[in-house]
Every structure is written in structure tokens, then in C-alpha cells.
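Hey team,

Filing this mostly as a record. A colleague (T.K.) asked me to run one chain through the structure pipeline before their review meeting, and I want the input and output archived in the tracker in case anyone asks later how it was produced. No errors, nothing strange. Just documentation.

Input sequence:
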Amino acid sequence: MNIICSTLNAKYIHTNIAIRYLKSYAAPEYDVQLVEYTIKDPIMNIVTDLISRKPDVLGFSCYIWNIEETIKVMQMIKKINPEIKIVVGGPEVSYDSMEWMDNVPSIDFIVLGEGEQTFKQLLNEISHGHEYKNVPGISYRENEKTLINPQRNKLDLKELPSPYRFEEDLPHLGKRVQYIETSRGCPFSCQFCLSSIEVGVRYFDREKIKDDIRYLMKNGAKTIKFVDRTFNISRSYAMEMFQFLIDEHLPGTVFQFEITADIMRPEVIEFLNREAPAGLFRFEIGVQSTNDATNELVMRKQNFAKLTRTVTLVKDGGKIDQHLDLIAGLPEEDYHSFKQTFNDVFAMRPEELQLGFLKMLRGTGLRLRAADHDYVYMDHSPYEILGNNVLPFEDIIRIKQVEDVLEKYWNDHRMDETIEYLVTRVFPSPFDFFQEFGAYWDRKGWSRIGHQLEDLFTRLYSFLESRKIENLDIVESLMKYDYLLRHKFKPRKPWWHVSFSKEQRTNIYSQILENPAVLGTSFMDLSLSEKELHKHTMLEELSFNLTKYIRDGEIERSKNVLVAFFDPSQEKTGLYSAEM
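Output structure:
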């Protein structure tokens, strides 16, 4: 029997751990082939490839991001060869299975919930007995009637074989994100999350997990992401794993975790700040809302003061990047309340702030009680809300405008100094800046066209100019600084008009050659010749003392020159400024 397990990942760099667990559990009785695609791949190409492999059983791992494309693939497969048995599993199809069986006739079986043992037993029946009533945790048809078998008891995770020892994966380990499960389940009951449905937390064998991580690192894995819903629910377990990763990590490896920040003890953060190498760890923290009434409605326990303490201590340590999540559209969180949530979280200046919109996932409490808050949402995945009793669609569009420019101007860190100045000294709040700019961006139609790096600067300048803000020259100077700071090579065509004529540049270069100390000792250490100075530097006029601003945050107006040096060897690239 030829068995294929497949999925459509969101991106090439992603790896599906679920089908690897199925393959490892089914062995050695069944040899399961793993075939992965992306949602960007043409449907015909996917179908052609799968049909060419001549499967008898074809399994798909289904999620909100791939279900629409997966259905198209299944429908075409069945039309070409109706004899192929199609099995689906995953969080998107584990709930409302009757509806899936009724609406998608190309599905033969749905594996409900945890699938390793169920899938193997289903293969036994497909291969031999065809007594599907004996397989717990599946939905199937018999005599044109859909039947659902109750799920089995939860597996003992300590007995599961490793999903990482496949030779065909070796060439890809360093190119893709590798996912690690150390536990399943979540101790919390957030009503917008599928994890709230499973009661309790179960752990895998710690030593097996460590061996898997050693194996992945040894074979070139660079990004390893822990998919535990709350990695730090057990302090002793988290500390043991942190210590292991610090002791045994290989250079260039990064580990990502989803943590609950308000339960993390300060001594744990102090340990990480002291012992962890910079860049080894990355934290993802779901804040979602700072509105206590909203959190209570979704059964989400959160102490925002303690969360802030954790995020601040981690940020002060300077070793761990943090990705914080917000959800717009939670119950009784209107536009103004969400604005407060945004400003509360942005005040912590996370390295990345993800602004998402509530999705009414199948099986969640919020979806089951959607009428309580007049939720309107998409009928198809990702089931994103279109409005509720306090947040009309018009306000959702406004918040999406915020999301658009937030991603471009904060999360990409193209203009950190500029944005910091704008959100603290020009606009009433960070949200006001992103909202006004996002609305302007939308009116200009820029969302419908692409952009280059320079466009991000010229479009921001256009917005600020249209708003007639005070001290635009200071903002322009900061934008020049941000632009040049993040260039490894001398830009051919900057976004602004050059400040100096050829004669003025020659005069400034002469002053620098006569007295290099004017730019500081670090510039003197470069020991540049006149030829190198002219060839590898850019000169731009600033309207204030940049050095004093970066050091003290004070604006002192003066005619400053910014000297950007671009070292071809990329060892000494830097920016220097002085009053001239």
C-alpha cells in the first residue's frame, strides 16, 4: 500500500511536524512518504506531482491557512482517481467534522484530534479489515451516512518515537524552521484559542527531547521553535531546558519560545540575562488585550503589571528579542479601548509588535457563543471577524491601516530613531501616529502598489509635510541618519536631495583631513587617506547636534555634518557627526 502524508505550508521555510509524527508512529509496519508544498504553489502542479506518485492513501494536514487550497487539491485528485483514499486531520477539520464530511465529498476519513495511533489503526483497516467502527477518533461514511467514532484516551507522549530521524529531511534542516514539542495542552482557558479545549498539560520525555535537539543542531538546524503553548508553565522544567540549551547550543542556532510573561519569575530572567549568549533565545508573548473586562470575558487571566515587569527586564538585559501579540476584536474591546491596549504595549518598545485580528476558530468558546456579542465573521477560513456589537467594520478597517504601517515602519526597524521621535514628540500617542499615517497611506493608494526602501522614506516625508508638523527639518535629519545607519554599502541614490555642492564637500573633507579628531577618536582610528575619504564616505547636513541627541535625547540646534563611512570590508562601517 502506497501511503503519502502531505500538507501545504504557508512558506517554504516552514516544516510540518504533524505528518512526521504520523510517519514515525506508523513505522515499521507502514512506509509513509512525506511530501510538502506551499500555498503559493500552483494547484495543478501539486496535483500532478501527487498523482505521479500513485498513492493508495493520501493524507493532508489541515489548518486555517491551507484548507481552501487543500480542498481544491483533494477535489481534483478524486476526479482523476476516485479510488485513492483521502484522509484529513489537523485543527481545522477536527471540529465540525459532520459539516466537513457533508460539504467536501472528496474526504473519505477525518482523524479527530491526536492522530498518531488513530492514523496507524486506520491504515490497518484500510489495508485489511475495513471495519472502520473499530477505529476510535475518526469520522467516515458508511452506506452514505456519516458516522463519528468517539476519540480514544490521550497518548502517553513519553512513548512517541522521534519525528526527526528521516534521511530525506537532512538536506533541509538548515534551510527551514524546525519545530519541537516538549508538551501538549495548555493550562489556560482563553476562549479564542483552540488550546483551551484540551484540559491539562502532558510532557514528552525530557532526555528524548534533548537528544532530538542535539541531532537537529548537529545536522545544521539554525532556527528551532518550541511549539508548546506555554513553555514556562513549569518553572523547573523551563530552567532545565534553558540551561541545557545554553550549555550545548551550537554557534548560529536560535531558539524561539511562546511564554506567558506574567508568570515568569524575575530570578529566571536574571539567570537568562546573566548566562544566555545574546541572540540565542527569542520570546513570543501573547498580550492580546490590556482591558481587564475583555480578558475576563474570554476567561484569560493576565496580570499586566507583572507582564510589563518581565518584558522590561528582558529588554533591559539586551540579549533576547521579544515578539508581542495583540488581537483586535475581542469582546467589548471597542476602537478606543484597543487604542489604549496598543499604546500600553507599544510603551514597552518590543522588538516586534504583531497586530492581529480575532479569528473565530472552529471549536472555540467564542465561536460557539458568537451571538452573545453580535459577531459577524467570514464563512471561510481564516474566519476573521467583520464586526461585533462594539467594533463596526469601519473601525476594523482603521485598525488595519495601523497594522499596515506598523509592520513596515516599526517591525522592520528601518527608522527606529525617527519613529521614536515622532511617537514621543510630535503625535499625541504612538497609535495616533500609526493611525494617521496609515489612513494617509491608504488614501494615496500605496497599499495597492509595491515599494522600495527609498519609498518608505519619501512617503513618510510626504505625510509629515502634508500635516505641516513643526521641526520637519529635525525629522528629516533623523531620517537621513536612520537611512545611512542601516546601509552596509554606500547607497547610489539616497532618497533626499544632496546637501552640499562639490565645492562644499571638498572644503569639508579638507577640514576633516586637517583635524580628524573633530569626528572623535573612533573616526581617527580609521586612518583614512584623502582618496579613501572621498571614495568611501557620504556627507550630509543635519539641523541639530546628533551626538548629543543620541546620547542625551536633547535637541540642540546647530549646523552639523553627518559623515557616513562605508568600509568595503564591512568591518568598520559607521556614522560620525560634528559641528562644522
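Quick notes for T.K.: The mean pLDDT is 94. DSSP finds 21 helices and 20 strands in the chain.
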